[in-house]
Amino acid sequence: MATTKKVKNKKPVILVINDDGVTAPGIRALVDAVKDLGKVVVVAPDKPQSGMGHAITVGQPLRLRPVHSFNGIEAWDCNGTPVDCVKLAVDKVLHGKPDICLSGINHGANHSINVIYSGTMSAALEASIESIPSIGFSLLDYSIDADFSGATLYVQRLVKQILKKKYDHHLCLNVNIPAVPGNLIKGIRVCRQAYAKYEEEFDERTDPHGKKYYWLSGKFLNFDKGKDTDVWALEHHYISVVPVQFDLTKHVLKTKLEKDLNFK
Amino acid sequence: MATTKKVKNKKPVILVINDDGVTAPGIRALVDAVKDLGKVVVVAPDKPQSGMGHAITVGQPLRLRPVHSFNGIEAWDCNGTPVDCVKLAVDKVLHGKPDICLSGINHGANHSINVIYSGTMSAALEASIESIPSIGFSLLDYSIDADFSGATLYVQRLVKQILKKKYDHHLCLNVNIPAVPGNLIKGIRVCRQAYAKYEEEFDERTDPHGKKYYWLSGKFLNFDKGKDTDVWALEHHYISVVPVQFDLTKHVLKTKLEKDLNFK
Predict the structure, then answer these.
(1) In terms of residue numbers, what domain contains A182?
(2) Residues of B with CB below 8 A from A61's CB?
(3) Which residues are within 8 A (CB) of A63 and not within 5 positions of it... i.e. 6 or more apart?
(4) What are B64's strand-pairing partners?
(5) Percent of chain A having pLDDT more than 90?
(6) pLDDT recorded at residue B10
(7) Would you state the torsion angle of the CA atoms of residues A236, A238, A239, A240, taken in this order, to the nearest 10 degrees?
(8) In this structure, are residues A143 and B249 in contact, taking their beta carbons and an 8 Å threshold?
(9) Which own/partner contact pairs does B59-64 have at CB distance under 8 Å and 24+ positions apart?
(10) pLDDT, position B263
(11) What is d(CA A189, CA A196) in angstroms, rounded to the nearest whole number?
(12) How many independent structural domains does chain A possess?
């Protein structure tokens, strides 16, 4: 029953998660950006978990191992998914809720439809379900050598602001950062998720035994030219901030369906 | 580029997916319920994929194998997630979009917050993202021996109705069916997703080498007493139908955040 209470600490408790794995440079950049804002605890996957969405581990046991590479900051790796990391962190590491959960900084974009597939954003959303305000950060550069220096200042200011203001405990923000030097970032725009999707084109190959196999691959298609979208903001060198929710109900359809489906 | 076009066929093309795996009785019950409504094609995971959420497989190749246990109906199993199955089915099995995608029947509830973790519903939502109307079906009985007979008639009528009416191509329905005999089902209610969550209580054990490991386990908590929710409907022996969307933007928060985050 540990998860019902908040962790007691003089400084805000900041849980840091990611989906690229505990050794990724992005999580190190995030920890460096916020380490002076509170007591930071890291719980991150022991291997890359990109594209894991909101997967949880039900058929295998989970393990935690201490990690000693964050300059004295408490850190653990976990053999599960990003969402597992949030759940285990709250129940078995922190023994309560942190003041905020930060996820990332992801190596690569999580704007528009990516929010659905993203382990980074699913970890943030899981925290939000558990009444922990959360922010997922992603840089639009998939490279392991991505330059996070332009992002750092904005990450710090956003976290400071969210910690200061009293938002609903379910607050969850999807923050994407353009891959440009910090001085070219024009500022922050609060956006809606653009309507976009991937057009699959599986790469079909044949193994040495003559059997076919397929690599998932696809083209990103943005159907949404709205200036209030995250894709527009990022193309114009703004940081996009999309407030995200876990109520998936499409309320506008309810009345029509009630009429159509009223058979016993 | 196969995914842009619809499959041409005289009868409606019905793609059937699940997350319990191709051998689960639930997918067989679904196929039996709809096989007279169109040309049915099955593409399902080769092993249980419960709780996989919207995970996709990025680091491993995917394979398809023909399955010959559906009485002459074309069927394939896939080594990927439920979402992978939808993507592969469209690009490499159907070479185009089906008229509808049906997922399930899941062995176990996918109402309220379960929609987020559910492989069944993520497959349906993936179809919806790809402009294929979809329905995920779940029976409130986790048992492998669950009795799907009460569900079958309603499954058939719902699919018939959705195929007949011209809805938006992004239509996605989360249908949950109470685990009671068919004559006790009171009818269908169109609902919103109840606000509920799981309270984690990991089961902590020690392996023979003295190291701790944890089994995910938790208690379902419903905080939402609304009579318009799926949980209420199911508790009162109605079939719940929740229209589901993939736009996660929490629009109501945008204005407040725009004021708070307007620093450059």
Answers:
(1) 2-194+226-260
(2) 205, 213-215
(3) A78, A79, B211, B212, B213, B214
(4) B78
(5) 90
(6) 87
(7) -60
(8) no
(9) B59/A48, B61/A205, B61/A213, B61/A214, B61/A215, B62/A202, B62/A213, B62/A214, B62/A215, B62/A216, B62/B88, B63/A211, B63/A212, B63/A213, B63/A214, B64/A212, B64/A214, B64/B88, B64/B92, B64/B93
(10) 66
(11) 19
(12) 1
Q: Does A123 map to a domain?
A: yes
Asked if B130's CB is within 8 angstroms of A197's CB, the reply is: yes
- Which two three-digit tokens encode residue B102? 């049906």
SS3 B148: coil
3-state secondary structure of A196: strand
Ordered DSSP codes for B36-88: TSSEEEEEEESS--TT-TT----SS-B-EEE---STT-EEEEESS-HHHHHHH
Q: Beta A172-177 vs A239-243: how paired, if at all?
A: antiparallel
Q: Taking all residues of chain B, what is their mean pLDDT, rounded to a whole number?
A: 95
Q: Would the pLDDT of A264 be above 80? A: no
Q: Which residues contact B40 (CB under 8 A, 6 or more apart)?
A: B14, B16, B31, B34, B73, B74
CA distance A25 to B204: 31
Q: Helix (H, G, I), strand (E, B), or coil: what is residue B220?
A: strand
CB atoms within 10 A of CB A25: 16
- Residue A32 is assigned to a structural domain of this protein: yes
The answer for B 8-47 residues in CB contact with A (under 8 A) is: none
Residue contact B243–A249, C-beta within 8 A: yes
Ranges A162-166, B7-11, B259-263, most confident: A162-166
Beta bridge partners of A17: A103
Q: Is the Cβ of A54 closer than 8 Å to some Cβ of chain B?
A: yes
In 3D, which of A103, A232, A257, A171 has the Cα closest to residue B245? A257
**Shortest Cα distance from A64 to chain B (angstroms)?**
8
- Give me the mean pLDDT over the A242-251 stretch: 97
Sorting pLDDT into bands at 50, 70 and 90, what band is A8?
Answer: confident
Stretch A77-85: mean pLDDT, rounded? 98
Interface test with B, best of A253, A254, A256, A264 (most B CBs within 10 A): A253
Q: Is B6 part of any domain?
A: yes
Three-class DSSP category at B262: coil
Q: In B, residues 176-205, which contact A (CB 8 Å cutoff)? A: 186-188, 190, 192-193, 195, 197, 199-202, 204-205
Q: Which residue of B has its CA nearest to A164?
A: B260
B56: contact with A, CB 8 A cutoff: yes
**Rounded to an integer, what distance in angstroms lies between the CA atom of residue A165 and that of residue A161?**
6
Domain annotation covers residue B62: yes
* ipTM of this complex prediction, to 2 decimal places: 0.94
The structure tokens listed for B130 are: 């790809």
How many CB atoms lie under 10 A from the CB of residue B168? Answer: 13
Find the farthest-apart pair of alpha carbons in chain B and give their distance in angstroms, rounded: 64
Q: Give the domain CATH number at A168.
A: 3.40.1210.10
Write out the two tokens for A31.
Answer: 């920890």
